[in-house]
Amino acid sequence: xxxxxxxxxxxxxxxxxxxxxxxxxxxxxxxxxxxxxxxxxxxxxxxxxxxxxxxxxxxxxxxxxxxxxxxxxxxxxxxxxxxxx
Length: 85
Known about the structure:
The protein is mainly α. It has helices spanning about 5-10, 30-50, 75-80.
């Protein structure tokens, strides 16, 4: 640390720019609009990545499969009871 540097300047990490305008002369309003669009797009991508669907649950052993309709009486109903009609 030299005499003209403060401790905050020494401890601060060097930041690399995330966005760099290579061509053109932007006004502060245009630059702010560009930064807002890029930030919104990154936030939408991060939100979409966090909303992954869980794997579908198997319904094979669900208790509702054990519930059967009551038997109805009538001609030939014993044969149709196996197909649930």
